[in-house]
Amino acid sequence: MHAVQRLGVGYHFEAEIEEALEKVHDMGEDLFTNFDGRGTDLYHAALRFRLLRQQGFPVSLDGFRKLKNSEGRFKEWLSRDEQGLLSLYEAAHIAFHGEDILDETLNFATKNLKSILLTNKNISNAVQRQIDFALFVPAWKCVPRSLARHSLDFYSDQGALLQNQKLLTFAKLDFNMVQSIHKQELRELSEWWKSIDGATNFPYARDRLVECYFWILCIYFEPEYSVARVLNAKIYIVLTTLNDTCDNFGTYEEVQALVKAIERLDARALDELPDRMKNMYRLTLNVYDEIEEEAGKKGSTFIVEYAKEEYKKLARAYLKKNGWCTEGQVPTVEEYLIESGYVTGGMPIVCGSAFVGMRADIVTREDFEWANNESKMFRSGSAICRIQNDIFTYKFEEKRNHAPSSVQCCMKQYGISDKEAVEFLLNELSNSWKNIAREYCQKPTLLPTVFKDRVINYARSMNLFYDNRNGDRYTNSHLLKEHLTALFIDPVPL
């Protein structure tokens, strides 16, 4: 089951996975009942915890307390169990607020895994690769498609580690088949971008067609979402171009006129715009006319209404940022997030628009309303998207005339250094992931799983585009070359 999910073919067996885990949960066995200090027991106990929790089954934390001695410290031999530590590390990431034992377990496992990489000269290359990848991004926070490609390459090199070779072959064939669909979608998008002369019409904007498609692919890769994926890649291109138009190209007055026109989304507003804003508005109208036509075929016009409203909110938030920059204002962290950050992080528009091109019965209007107004998961995902972007781009943005980020807002509000502000915001990221875990891992669910998956996958995508090793890999897109090659160009060798 673990291998099925990690290799990227879990979407074929969702009902079977649910049924199998339900049987495990109904057995009512303490995950650590037979725990006697042997590494295989620790590995499997932590793995069962992770699989059950991420599927929404309630699981006791008592087993983790058995890992400590009478003095309250983790037992010494744990630090020598590489596979057990790795399994504990992965499990402890799916923590809720107030679960101190999981926080302590995560800190312990992280410290010792790093120590193993630095000091243990005898670990195999296979274990070293596993640890290094997990420390970079744990499975819970990793985009499914990237995790699948990494796992396929890993198990292909270390075939003996995966006993079911038929599963590995099936996963390879499935990956390559789906990759061919993604290539066709990219071809279609490339032809569209050329047909509207996008690179020429927006020379000031980041030309990121492949990267925009990749970002949408992070949210859903499955073949059944092909139409929605192409439409949303176009939307994401619009969002990137709008961002650069508002941040780097238009004056406050020009952006204000553009936002006023976007509020109408009416072709008649084109004549009222400054010439420099007309191409941006034409692109907006063309893409939203296309998604409206497609939604009409699916009977999901209410989703387009939602997507349009979120686009208008995004335009207003960009205008707010432009105004702060023009006037040299630095708001409080709360003002920044509420008036701009939650929206410009992209979660509301990206996750809402994700359902354009799908059947009307996938989600309801009530789902959207509840997510926007009540869901901690949705709001926390928005915070992750904005804050993680800010943390790894603020130094670059400081070099040009740019609106303040959450880092600068935090520095001013609390009178602290940028290093302290980053630490403060990293803690906010940790809290936000706990909110996501609590709402995602619950039964019965208040949001359909198809909606929750879009939210968590968009939050996960931030780890690919913004990280402490490479910074901003969206703007500096050459840093994504390895990922793009693995997902779109090179098939998995059979």
Automatic annotation (TrEMBL):
It comes from Linum tenue. This is (+)-delta-cadinene synthase. Residues 195-434 form the Terpene synthase metal-binding domain. One of its GO terms (biological process) is hydrocarbon biosynthetic process. InterPro entries: Isoprenoid_synthase_dom_sf, Terpene_cyclase-like_1_C, Terpene_cyclase_plant_C1, Terpene_synth_N, Terpene_synth_N_sf, Terpene_synthase-like, Terpene_synthase_metal-bd, Terpenoid_cyclase/PrenylTrfase. Pfam families: Terpene_synth (PF01397), Terpene_synth_C (PF03936). One of its GO terms (molecular function) is terpene synthase activity. The keyword Lyase applies. Residues 2-135 form the Terpene synthase N-terminal domain. Keywords: Lyase, Magnesium, Metal-binding. SUPFAM superfamilies: Terpenoid cyclases/Protein prenyltransferases, Terpenoid synthases. Its cofactor is Mg(2+). CDD domains: Terpene_cyclase_plant_C1 (cd00684).
